[in-house]
């Protein structure tokens, strides 16, 4: 996989936003898979700035959701649907019908999972999927020991992930949903380009296991090694446990001719 070490989160966001902009210039109706949380916010902010400056037209872009909590009331501000609409769809000036995601409030959750998996395929597949990584190496909500062949499904969150996400619920663990719908690892791997952004020393162990460790279900993100076009963008903190940083810096340094990722 490609590993790009950037000075900080802002630089990572700008680099990935430019890759997304170039995709939209080639394919104006590209399907962009988005992630939630604080890590990708610099990407969305940089892409929004490009759109508002007239550097790229995103009016025909489509947005696909990576995962969703199960059981939150419709319109709950911390549902991932509401978050994506607020942080991505609205700032880019897109219509709500440009957005697709799983129904976390469905009575038949399994049917909703299967329907979303089909919808992604029928939409032509995801062109570029953004990913974050958990401190335990999870991507989406595919926790350790998730099958690499898994499809969109319901998952029970680990106590670590519940604790990590409590900050979005005023620190109240009891308010964090225990179940989610997530694209499976097999579903994620069908995207044409995977781009993972990780920042901070807290992600360093997970990044090292993902990039330099074996492909193993105990580190779900390590499945990116199997993808023909996977890019991992990390800041200095997240890169601090990598053993091959000299190689990565040599490979990607001083390339002003770069045209995205």
UniProtKB/TrEMBL annotation:
Allosterically activated by N-acetylglucosamine 6-phosphate (GlcNAc6P). One of its GO terms (biological process) is glucosamine catabolic process. Catalyzes the reversible isomerization-deamination of glucosamine 6-phosphate (GlcN6P) to form fructose 6-phosphate (Fru6P) and ammonium ion. Belongs to the glucosamine/galactosamine-6-phosphate isomerase family. NagB subfamily. Pfam families: Glucosamine_iso. It catalyses: alpha-D-glucosamine 6-phosphate + H2O = beta-D-fructose 6-phosphate + NH4(+). The record marks 146, 153, 155-156 as: Part of the allosteric site. GO terms for molecular function: glucosamine-6-phosphate deaminase activity; identical protein binding. This is Glucosamine-6-phosphate deaminase. It is an enzyme of class 3 (hydrolase). HAMAP family: GlcN6P_deamin.
């Amino acid at each position: 996989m490609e590993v790009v070490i950037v000075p900080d989160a802002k630089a990572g966001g700008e680099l990935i936003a430019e890759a997304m902009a170039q995709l939209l210039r080639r394919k104006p109706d590209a399907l962009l898979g988005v992630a939630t949380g604080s890590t990708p916010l610099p990407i969305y902010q940089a892409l929004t700035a490009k759109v508002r400056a007239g550097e790229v037209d995103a009016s025909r872009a489509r947005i696909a959701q990576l995962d969703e909590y199960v059981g939150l009331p419709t319109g709950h501000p911390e549902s991932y649907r509401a978050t994506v609409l607020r942080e991505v769809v609205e700032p880019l000036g897109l219509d709500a019908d440009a957005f697709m995601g799983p129904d976390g409030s469905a009575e038949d959750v399994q049917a909703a999972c299967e329907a979303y998996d089909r919808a992604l395929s029928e939409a032509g597949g995801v062109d570029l999927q953004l990913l974050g990584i958990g401190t335990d190496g999870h991507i989406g909500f595919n926790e350790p020991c998730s099958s690499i062949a898994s499809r969109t499904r319901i998952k029970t969150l680990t106590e670590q992930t519940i604790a990590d996400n409590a900050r979005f619920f005023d620190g109240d663990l009891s308010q964090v949903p225990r179940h989610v719908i997530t694209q499976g690892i097999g579903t994620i791997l069908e995207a044409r380009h995977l781009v993972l952004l990780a920042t901070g020393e807290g992600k360093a162990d997970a990044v090292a296991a993902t990039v330099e460790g074996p492909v193993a279900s105990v580190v779900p993100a390590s499945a990116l090694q199997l993808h023909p076009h996977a890019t991992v963008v990390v800041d200095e903190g997240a890169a601090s446990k990598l053993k091959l940083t000299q190689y990565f810096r040599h490979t990607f340094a001083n390339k002003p001719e770069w045209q995205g990722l």
